[in-house]
Amino acid sequence: MLGRVLSSIRRSFWAFSLVAILGFLSACASLGLASNHLRPGHVFQDCAHCPQMIVVPAGMAMLGSPESDPMRRPDEEPVQRIMIEEAFAVGRYEVTVGELEAFVRATGRDIGGDCLTDRNVTGNWAHDAGTTFRDPGFSQTQSHPVACVSWDDAQAYADWLSVQTGRDYRLLTELEWEYVARADTSIGNLYPWGNDPASGCGYANAFDQSAMEKYGGMDTSGYTLFDPMRCRDGWLNTSPVGSLTANGFGVHDIIGNVSEWVGGCHTPSHDAQPAGESAPGAGACVRRVAKGGSWGTLAHNFRIGERLPYPATHRDDSIGIRVARSSLGNAGYSTSPIRAASQGDSISWRCSCWRLGPTVTAIR
Ligand SMILES: [Ca+2]
Ligand SMILES: [Ca+2]
């Protein structure tokens, strides 16, 4: 009898020890995974159809164009230097046609026509009801960046990703976008590669000499400045994402290919707060902002500080989407969708304040 009791105690002891050891190893693995999440350059994907994300480090960000930029506009002034205090993740590539297709198939969202295109008259861009993200007026594959999507479409896509994954997907703030574009190595430069736009064709699909072969005869009399890139990137319209060299953070096509919607409102200057910073859709924003220029924009539109303001409903054959994800350190990555969302799902609004979010500190 005493032997059976002792044997039972020994089994309980070893079982308890095994559970404790497994718990300890699990905790170690979790800590390792959490730190991995914060490692700059780490690439991950929260679901099979989600965009590939890459971790960018915390660091000092600059918003706006310096006084040395002869083309800077009032809405790009004054320069602000702001510390981003936490690493975050950004789309390694622009959102692709295939990735948006998954969203449209799941939700039934109507991303229809009325896209600005020159498919009918070369060099004369006009809204066309038959032009959609599936057919933007030029050939593309599922790996090309999506175009002909509005800010509202982009926001809905980011919200859908959040519901799908249980993670905090959103558009980049304008500050984050400029920080990623500069990649912590070019503060003060007009372009990520320096101050000469002609050096950028290895990094950016632009309105270059390839485009001039098609558009060389277009009427440019309405342009204040017509300055195509004086180099050749090899692409007339959009290029498959990742076709050109990544920047210092490992991010492709942040300049060029398609411009990218960012969160927040367009403002008269970087000192102007949008009224009340109320939620998108509440009427606070007259215009949103697209950043980075595209296959169809000129060299001066590739300046990091450049802001391209449009209404939230505007669709354009040169504007697409890039997403960001916060809260990397407090949860693991999901490997399968949590549930499918449908259009009309109630999704609480998360702050995409134009300047100060929970992870940044202003330094004036
Ligand atoms: Ca090009
Ligand atoms: Ca881009």
CATH class: Alpha Beta
The whole-number mean of residue pLDDT values reads 81
Broad structural category:
alpha+beta
Beta content comes to: 5-15%
What's the number of structural domains? 1
Write out the distinct hetero groups bound to the structure: calcium ion
CATH topology label = paralog of FGE (formylglycine-generating enzyme)
**Tally of helical runs:** 5
CATH architecture assignment name: Alpha-Beta Complex
Q: Could you give the distance between the termini? A: 78 Å
Key terms:
globular; 14% strand; disordered C terminus; 5-stranded antiparallel beta sheet; paralog of FGE (formylglycine-generating enzyme); binds calcium ion
Report on the architecture of this protein.
With 364 residues, this protein is of the alpha+beta class. The protein contains five helices and 15 strands. The protein has helices spanning 2-37, 97-107, 151-165, 174-182, 209-215, and strands spanning 43-44, 53-56, 59-63, 80-84, 88-91, 115-117, 126-128, 169-171, 259-262, 288-291, 308-310, 315-316, 319-320, 323-325, 360-363. The strands form four sheets. It has a five-stranded antiparallel β-sheet with strand order 1-2-5-14-8. Strand 6 (115-117) and strand 7 (126-128) form a beta hairpin. The longest helix has 36 residues, at 2-37. The model is unreliable at 24-34, 274-282 and 330-364 (pLDDT under 50). The protein binds calcium ion (2 copies). The site of one calcium ion has 8 residues, from helix 5.
